[in-house]
Write the structure tokens for this entry.
Amino acid sequence: MLTGCHASRPQAEFTVVTHPGPADDPALSRQGVDWSLTGRRAVFVSVYQSAETAPPVRRVSLSERTVHIDLADGTVATHPIGA
């Protein structure tokens, strides 16, 4: 099973909506999330992790050009945006 943490800059509003199902059964509907915000530029990021992976992700945040992933063991992984 995958778990996910999400972040945006500027702050986005999440709305739970019904989406079509997978390609092999599009008639099946599933709950999904739409992100919306107002601005000239937006950055959205999602970090997914297997539920069995350690240490787990605790928080995802964005600075001007970097994604910061805070892990439960106190370490922070960083990844550049737009590199």
